[in-house]
Specification:
Strand 4 and strand 5 form a beta hairpin. The longest helix has 16 residues. The protein has about 180 residues and is α/β, with parallel strands linked by helices. It has one domain: Glutaredoxin. Strands 3-2-1-4-5 form a five-stranded mixed sheet, with helices on both faces. It is built from six helices and five strands; from the N terminus they run αβαβαβαββαα.
């Protein structure tokens, strides 16, 4: 079980979003420089639009410290991973959700156990963790068979359990050969 209360305390200190009382909270750890995270940005923006009237809050958190990036990782984005950079990135790409920065302390990222981006966590009204994993099963978005974040949100909105409570992250496992 994730130490969700630690994470929520950190996020509440950062934004008042979590105390709005929406039935579902989608927390998405993402970043500016990762090609996989970038590939999902448009689908996340669309999901926020699609669930705008359905008691779902979305928040994104950047877990990356600019000092921790290797030079070869910085070639995928026009900006880096500082607080100012994520503000520029969010505005340029039209993020319609808060985009928080955890790069200095990585307190929330460590508490959640984030290992790659994007990494989605869905919490119910009591803020109990109900799902964590990938947004869907196709990085490019051309052949999606499992819309994990949407399926999870829909199940929770209907008062049901999420059948797959955890899915593997795409890019991370491809890179380590699993």
């Amino acid at each position: 079980m994730l130490p969700i209360s630690i994470c929520l305390e950190w996020t509440v200190r950062t934004t008042s979003l979590l105390i709005t009382g929406e039935d579902i909270l989608a927390i998405i750890f993402t970043c500016n420089h990762c090609p996989t995270a970038q590939a999902y940005e448009g689908r996340i923006i669309q999901a926020v639009k699609d669930y705008a009237e359905k008691s779902v809050d979305f928040v994104a958190i950047s877990p990356n410290s600019a000092a921790g990036l290797r030079l070869n990782e910085q070639g995928f984005s026009i900006v880096g991973e500082t607080l100012e950079d994520i503000k520029i990135h969010a505005e340029f790409y039209g993020f319609n959700f808060p985009y928080l920065y955890d790069g200095e302390s990585q307190e929330a990222s460590r508490a959640y156990g984030v290992i790659a981006t994007p990494h989605v966590y869905l919490c119910d009204k009591e803020r109990k963790l109900r799902y964590h994993g990938r947004p869907d099963d196709d990085e490019k978005g051309d052949n999606i068979k499992s819309q994990d974040i949407r399926d999870g949100i829909d199940a929770l909105l209907a008062g049901n359990e999420i059948p797959n409570k955890e899915t593997r992250l795409l890019r991370l496992f491809d890179e380590v050969g699993e």
